[in-house]
Input
Amino acid sequence: MQADIKWLDDPQVFRVGQLPAHSDHYWYRDADEARSKSSSFAQSLDGQWQFKFADRPQHRPIGFYEPNYDTSDFGTIHVPGHIELSNYAQIQYINTLYPWEGKIYRRPAYTMGSDQTGEGMFSEAPDNSVGAYIRHFRLAPGLRNQRVIVQFDGVEEAMYVWLNGHFLGYAEDSFSRSEFDLTDALVDGENVLAVEVFKRSTASFLEDQDMFRFSGIFRSVRLVGLPTVHVADMHIRPVVNEDLDSGELNVTLKLTGDLESKARVHLTVFDKADKLIVDEKRPVAKQISFGHLPFENVMLWTHHNPDLYHLTVTITDADADPIEVVPYDIGFRRLELRNQVIYLNGKRLIINGVNRHEWDAATGRTVSMADMKADLQTFAENHINAVRTCHYPDQIPWYYMCDQAGVYMMAENNLETHGTWQKMGAVEPSDNVPGSLPQWREAVLDRARSNYETFKNHPAILFWSLGNESYAGDDIEAMNTYYKTMDSSRLTHYEGVVRNRKYETSISDVESRMYASPAEIRTYLSNQPMKPFLDCEYMHDMGNSLGGLGEYMALLDDFPSYQGGFIWDFIDQALWVTDEVTGRQVLRYGGDFDDRHTDGEFSGDGLMFANRQAKPAMQEVRYYYGQYDN
Amino acid sequence: MANTTTKLHVIFGDGTLGVATEDVHYLFSYEKGGLESILSHGKEWLYRPIRPIFWRATTDNDRGNHFSEESAMWLGADCFTRCQAIDVQVDGEDLGLPIAPQNNQFSNDEMADRVDITFDFQTATTPATKVTMHYQIVANGKVTLTSHLQGNEALPELPAFGVQLIMPTVATGFEYDGLSGETYPDRMAGGSRGQYYVAGLPVTPYLVPQEMGMHMQTRWLTVTRQRTLNNADVDAQPFSLSVEMNDQPFAFSCLPYTAMELEAATHIEELPLARRTVLSVYGAVRGVGGIDSWGADVQPPYRLFADVDRTFTIQIHPGNHVTD
Output
């Protein structure tokens, strides 16, 4: 297989050579490793990488992935991080218009006719900067003589990967993990991993989120070794019966490796008091299902009591020694939609939510565990019980942390095509993607699949969100159908269908709007609503704002079908910069980098300032969310 | 406080009216159109005369819904309003504007129980309207200031209506009885009533400097300073000035900047070095809004329509808050 730069232009090519998405479980060599959460099967590749920047594809170092390539003119870059924040490329903030607005004329492939393939639109574009990354590594002892996978947790927006000169594949979808099997290309001793990252591809049309526009390997990279028998995927489906007291657990495992061996699978589940509830053993097989394991007196998972059961899959060899240990904390909760009201564990669901971009004023969308912990602490202090992962999947640990903290999640796909349907505020979808174009359908379905497969076991997720502000057509309808087919334990969410009500019955379980006034919401809810209502975005907290929250909260008293909403948004997006005049560290926003076109300070809409200091308005959120904290 | 049996000493100057007790000496400037000096135990409290204010710095939501464009003439009024008439009454006797030769009849020991002085302003709006600031000083030395805005339906909505005291140096802090945090008419349910001390004059670091630091529903406020601009004053003891509600609580902000200074900056690092204390006391302020930042207006109950008369009264005196 040869890498082809024309994939950048083709919306029908978005993953080549990648492993299929699977559950986000961690695996360990034995119980001790599992307890300490330190796996000898994992080897981090974070740190300094060799790096060469090119302002356009034609200037990139051709063949840099060959192990004997002369890299003497390469610099370095820190992984994870954004190329722009290492000052190789210009920082730009822009909201709905595409970042090339007024610089390059583009229409998404096939929107202006089936013969408009978009060839060369990105592969020959002067605004498509390229980062050539090289990392030398030797396998850690724990990974030798095994299948070895490389995991990229986030790379923006398109990448080609080689190991020791062998092409491994191609990935888009900046915010989903991409994995490639390195095994056949590995050598003893030093290996050379090469990654070519393009700032733009057809994925750029799908990633028009209101945010600073970055590129590069901005989340962690690691190698993982697969033991001789390995749990490749686990599908855990706890079910709570109607009595809210009894339930059952269904677990399906997909195994890889030596499935002819005498290895066995041992499934245990302990409750929080360390009482053994499940204790099942099976011989290994490609797929193993444990069905209808009964549970009595179920500890329900809720915001205030996020009780989790401790599930463990242990694979043992013929001598009963462990080969692999996979722990996963699971939660039982019952989500229902009855008569236009959403209930969680029999109680009407009230969402006291926020939208949260991943943001750190020093490192952009490369956020740390400390940032995530601080954010959950802020949630707890202010009665924030729900988060929308606007508008892309977050780092994987965040989902585990929300399970632990009892924070309800709206897990959103990496999708926003705002600039293809809304121009100067008006709905004008003549070049909308994905729309109903077959050439764009698989790309967005792949994003839905990655989101579902990766995060399907998290009790915190109550809603799958199809994306943000992308209008509505057959393709987004297909995403809704996908989630409905895969998952009956959660609801689907999508706001954009209110812009095209032709799809009202086939997209989104909820009537979701953004920035509807209290009066508009009253009108909807007073006229035989078809669906429960929630605000996927409301209370736009730009600068000194957040007036009138009480009028929204009053809707909770007046309409059972009003389920609350997600404030826009949690934290200002601004960047620490050394002031060119005073030398002080100051926070800067769009336009402060000579970036044009830009939407300036419009990214400063947080309840928190970019330095994670709460804005004064937070006390109002604390008060009202506290009044409805159930 | 001064002994309430003591009378006020009235000094009928040629450009000012002086009113003094043992503890405080007020100077009303006929030329500048307002109270220009509150001197108490050697400490000056005013850098510029107290003036009416109509503007608070544009918020992002104001920008989005074009409020500031619609109401821009109030910015002009905030900067350039003219004092048109002054009237002095002593113990209820109307003296008009008692300058020479009318004041030749007085001596240096004119005493009174009550002094009233009224300044009439014409706003720099089209059409113009009238603002009256009426100061009443009684023998205990306390000033009661009543400000009145004459409504006019031809004028756009106001950002705010209040009075401003600019103090010569930066305060060390202020204490108030009101609501916690920054509050606005449409964002004060979360404010807890209590007495709060705020150290220094904190500037809320909104990405683009804008209206900030408002405190609604305030019963009293004490500002404390430690330094003066008087070159002969080497004393570093803190000293205070208080504002008390009269019949209704007031709103205030206490910042190192005027609305104009906030309005002019695109980042907080562009704000000037903090030099003075800008105490703005409001009878009415516009809410901040929150539905969106690109068009939705503040909800009607929290907007200041210009067609109604507005009046508010506060009391000002040197020293700490006094419990009635």
Remarks:
- Helices of chain B lie at 60-64, 67-70, 73-80, 259-264.
- The two ends of chain B are 12 Å apart (CA to CA).
- The mean pLDDT of chain B is 96.
- The first strand of chain B starts at residue 8 and ends at 12.
